[in-house]
User: Fold this.
Amino acid sequence: MIHADAPFVARLRSRADLPEAQLDPLGALPIGRVSLTPECQLVSEGDRPRYLHVLEQGWAAKVKMLPDGRRHFATLLLPGDICDIDGLHLHAYDYGVVALTRCTVSRLDRHAVLDLCDENRIVAQLLTWLAFVENALLNQAALSLARRSARDRLAHLLCELMLRLTRIGFARVDGYDLPLSQEKIADALGLTSVHINRTFRQLRTEQLASLSRQRLSLLDWDGLRRSAGFTPDYLHLDGMRAA
Amino acid sequence: MIHADAPFVARLRSRADLPEAQLDPLGALPIGRVSLTPECQLVSEGDRPRYLHVLEQGWAAKVKMLPDGRRHFATLLLPGDICDIDGLHLHAYDYGVVALTRCTVSRLDRHAVLDLCDENRIVAQLLTWLAFVENALLNQAALSLARRSARDRLAHLLCELMLRLTRIGFARVDGYDLPLSQEKIADALGLTSVHINRTFRQLRTEQLASLSRQRLSLLDWDGLRRSAGFTPDYLHLDGMRAA
DNA sequence: CGAAGTGTTGAAGGGTTTCAAGCATAGTGG
DNA sequence: CCACTATGCTTGAAACCCTTCAACACTTCG
Assistant:
């Protein structure tokens, strides 16, 4: 059984327009649990999907590789996020899922979820909705990669993480834990770790944000938001209850 | 009524594992038609979705803007593609849809489609499947933006277009019509039009591909594919019949 | 305490942008 | 049919942003 206060169920319940009881069937599915250490792959490109994975604790990422070993994190996954929702409908993964920190993952049987979707329209719509929200994040990340400078790209990501972490209760107004090496941040932003380092220094010089010992301090949230041109519309928080 | 040989229905019918008759209800929906000229916006960021739009003729794109006017095409839309599938479930568009050529669009009433999805499981799954495939394209584009050089990025896009156009019968083995200015190609790849020009010259020098008068000639398809590291898995053509 | 990973900084190099100019092409009106 | 115009294509030179390479400091952990 999914525990009632697991991040996954908590996030789903936060949809403002859903009656609580509608999610009970989802919580009643049999469930497995997996523990991962950093750099450990949960699924690999080309695998045939057999489970639906939900990140419960820690950070992970959807990763795409280039033949020469360079990689890109298409999506950063936080507690409560579904790791591989498109595995429900596609025949093979076209990305990997890699743990960025120690993390624990719930796994639901893929067919059990599909069957539940067939019976329960609410659950089906909810999963589709989550997929579209993830898609919106990806669109925004693509805009960053295509047209924003390294500085704005980093600032924008820090803003996005602030809101996503706040929603699940992992941030305070003055900052949040950011348990990623600068190299991993670089893989999320399409930059090099050296340049991430220099860019953090710039943000610190501008008195906007500073990173130290895996803790991000927001020195001037409003200034950071404005300078990055960050608007939270694309997170589609409108349908969500406050955290 | 959607005409039986409209690109949209044609594409849906091409799912190999679907009995043909299952799609009849979709073809029976009432339908509107819109004509657009280049640079004309079909929907705008922030709009409230009221229709589901299907591109029937011409090229279009999902566009995201930066305050300073720079823009990025998140997805290139070809005949048969749904322009705004996430509008079915989200409250507001977080992107615009802009015509790149003259084009015609079918519009289905959003609620009619949602109602149909409620009745007809096959249609619902098919639309979800299309959304996931689009998502996969976006992931691949993000990898290009993050980690591929301009040359590889362009070569990769040309390969992708070759397969997508072939599927809908718009390409020959020696090339295809590419009715986009170099500036629009730049907006799709996160580059400048000047650099797109130089990059095309490079591909021509390498005897791989050449663009002239809106026609892309594939001089060496296999060489282009290999040099770009192009593998078509992410297009998820496996569930499709041959064009 | 040693080792490995991560953070930090400098210098040099390269890929892409910017700016600017000239050229080709297509469409328009006289 | 021919200016005339607008738009897009092409090319060069300079500037800029980011990468690469290298060295060293710091932290963490066995």
